[in-house]
Amino acid sequence: MRTEYQFREIEKTWQGFWEQNQTFKAQVNPNKPKYYVLDMFPYPSGAGLHVGHPLGYIASDIMARYKRLQGYEVLHPMGFDSFGLPAEQYAIQTGQHPAITTEQNITRYIEQLKNMGFSFDWSREVRTSDPSYYKWTQWIFMQLFNSWYNQASDKAESIDTLKDILATKGAIGLQAVCDEEVERISAESWHAMTEDEQYAYLLNFRLAYLDDSVVNWCPQLGTVLANDEVKDGLSERGGYPVEQKKMRQWSMRITAYADRLLRGLEEVDWSDSLKEQQRNWIGKSIGTDVEFEIEGISDKKIKVFTTRVDTIYGVSFMVLAPEHEWVAELTKPDQQADVEAYITWTKSRSELDRVSEVKTVSGVFTGTYVINPLNQERVPLFLADYVLAGYGTGAVMGVPSGDQRDWNFAKHFDLPIPAILDAQKEIEKQADNTKEGKYINSGLINGMGYKQATETLIQWLEERGIGKGKVQYRMRNAVFSRQRYWGEPVPVYFKPNAAGQLLPYLIQESELPLELPKIDKYLPTETGEPPLGRAADSWKYQGQYDYEWSTMPGWAGSSWYWYRYMDAQNGVEFASAEAVNYWKAVDLYIGGSEHATGHLLYSRFWNKFLKDLGYVAEEEFAKKLINQGMIQGRSNFVYRLKNSDQVTFVSHGLKDQYDVAALHVDVNIVENDVLDIAEFKRSRNDVPADAQFILEDGKYICGWEVEKMSKSKFNVVNPDDLIAKYGADTLRVYEMFLGPLEQFKPWNTNSISGSHNFLRKVWRLFFDEQAQKSIVVDSPATPEELKVLHTAIRKVQDDLDRYSFNTVVSTLMICVNDLGQLKCHSKSVLRELVLLLSPYAPHLAEELWVALGEAAGSISHASFPVFNPTFLEENEFNYPISFNGKVKLTLAFSATASPAEVEAGVLANEQVQKHLDGKAPSKVIVVPKRIVNIVLGK
RNA sequence: GGCGAUGUGGUGAAAUUGGUAGACACGCUACCUUGAGGUGGUAGUGCCGCUUUAGGUAUGGGAGUUCGAAUCUCCCCAUCGUCACCA
Fold this sequence. Notes:
It is a single chain. The protein is α+β, with helices and mostly antiparallel strands. The chain has five domains: 29-142 and 256-274 and 484-628, 3-Layer(aba) Sandwich (Rossmann fold); 284-473, Isoleucyl-tRNA Synthetase, domain 2; 631-716, no CATH class; 723-871, Orthogonal Bundle (Isoleucyl-tRNA Synthetase, Domain 1), CATH 1.10.730.10; 874-935, Ubiquitin-like (UB roll) (Roll), CATH 3.10.20.590. Strands 10, 11, 12, 13, 14, 15 and 16 form a seven-stranded mixed β-sheet that branches. The longest helix has 19 residues, at 783-801. The model has no long low-confidence stretch (mean pLDDT 89). The structure holds one RNA strand.
């Protein structure tokens, strides 16, 4: 038996034990309630884990262990999102297959994760780049290809039901999500089509579809990117410029689910900020489409979308996006030169320029006028790039009195700013978007209020067929192709129809997985085709048809992985119905907030789709989500004397007295901001052995600053080093003790010794290290000990139930401190304490559990201590006595004393009388078992 | 600019329904113990003031509600996140 806290040996022993005995293997167990706790699986990067990564994993592991003790069957898996750009970029440079790099990185990750003592069920590990996994990603793609969205039933259905509808009723009146331009054919026309033509027509409705769309093209990465992979006009990975380009691409009709994605947010327990980000991304606006006639052109009308149709009498101009397809036609000859110059100028501006010059007004008159349908007024038609081609109709009605951008535009081009509401103020100075007051100068709606005016106008427009109430979403369909190698192949091949046009067809399900072919180089082909084009000669469907050469985006494999964990080895289904119906959905999902609009939105989309098809049980896949705060770096600095022949460093507190330059210093040779000078000299080439140090109190104190954690700033802290020094249990306790899980915080190793000392203190309740013997006794617990213990049981349970991981550590510390004071070595108390501690410090808990005579390994599936309130009952309560809200003293009264008795007792007290100083209180407030407040009049 | 969040000692933080602000931990001070790898213990530590005692003051700033506000309401300031000419 170990009588010293030798954490290295202890941790190694138990990690080996867990692995050997498969202690954390989960299984479908109908006799137990289930709990599914999931971490966002990592991309296995070459750098390995840093100290920020485990934060969320520690929290989820604590929940997993806590729920096991509460009698749940817990699913707590881990895997790897192993397709991605870095491995491929590395392959381009070295020629090494990305699978090899990926494999190496995963091995390293697993080793690091195992060192932390996580209770993962490793038998369920998944890797998105493994064919046995991406077989099912491809399978889901096939289901999407074979489905359409029926707005009548408000769900996705098999494409066969669409065929039936087309055959019987045609597309007239069909409520389906598709492109607006799709021709509404009759049943007769459907029957008149050839099979090829019908197939081509159906492509317009599939949830996975090919489309010419304007995409974010990144030349340096040689691929298209989704909107959420572009930040400020630059690629999120690498920071390369991104341009707009029209390309034929696979897309996903996520917009079909816009409203359900919005509504679903109400039933999940996610943070407000995250839900709000998703709402903004979906961007629902309720408004009206209105058609404006064009002067001199009778066969066309310009359609605008507005959320404020009530302001239509205030229109003094109209603006089209420069990319609008009618621009050429609508430009009058004498304006042609100006318009062309403007379009050329807008094209020359990068996405970045546009974003950074939001406030500048630019635009050009087309020479054309349009007619306001309400008052027949003629208003000039402009082009301006503040109108976006991709949103709404690409046309906007200008209402300068109510919209600041329109106001700026009107001022710039000297256009009228008519008032429309009597409540608008100072519209000659700025726009006023109020909805208050009564309408003026507004024909039909004069004298009405906002609501009535809007309803009246929509009705008026709809009756005449020139307008319609409409819901508009900002969210676009998701581009699903990437011109890269290291991703899932799309299970599609192209076959020409009678006219020689290539149409996409799915391969057979039995042919899955469609594996990545070997290629010579991981670069685009000489003709600019994606890397898979290099395999073209040998890699053909049925030996003759080209496969799709682009691969799936990074988010494909991560949009359903929680289901694979449920039944990871299944060879015939992505997961069995039995597994899906038992585990259902994730009860607790922990990961970074950077996935707010990417992964979390796409995952919800795929989940809803799979639900529609009846493959999964729940509409929302993650009931509760916590975003762990990012851990920032905490850099240390030394201050080098400028203009000195001798290399000299000045301690932080004295630096203001000298002329110094701050230099980063490796945080790993600094402890509590005190520099290890010998190590500093040894590790740096630029610091000679005779360097001078101006110290304060005999120490060199470093300055510090919060920055991003990065190698160049010498502030990366590796968890392996800390585990070697203090043990995994200490690291786990310390990371939780840092503060609330959700909070952003700088990493600071300074106070880790407190957590380590705490675990040593626990150890000393069990062992006398000097005498090298156990000091646990069988004697019954005293009332004081039971009170201390049960106070902790209650608080630990309450805090874990509200995910307050940091305060649990404090509670355990207080409990251990108090038991130490009481010199408690009673077995019955210590047994419960070990259970409380075990989710946080599992290795230590296992060791102590055995020391108490329990069976090895049985602590993981033991029962959580039961709180007993009778141990906390007190005969007396110490009332704080306050005067006008300020506490001056405390007085003890019987816990059962009535408020009147307490009041009488307080007023009879000598000290209270002294504070009263002869004055009579105007009121005495007694809150039982809380406080007494004596109110003194002024 | 919109939206969301946050603001408490030298530091990380706690205060769950409004009820003794600063638990717990780091750091620091003093003393005892120990004496080779991040020892153990005792006491103290928000700020101002005092020899000690009183006492005063304090949760970004200002106002308000209340017997009582870190907590609720309004205005302002700062920081972080996010979207960003979305009609």
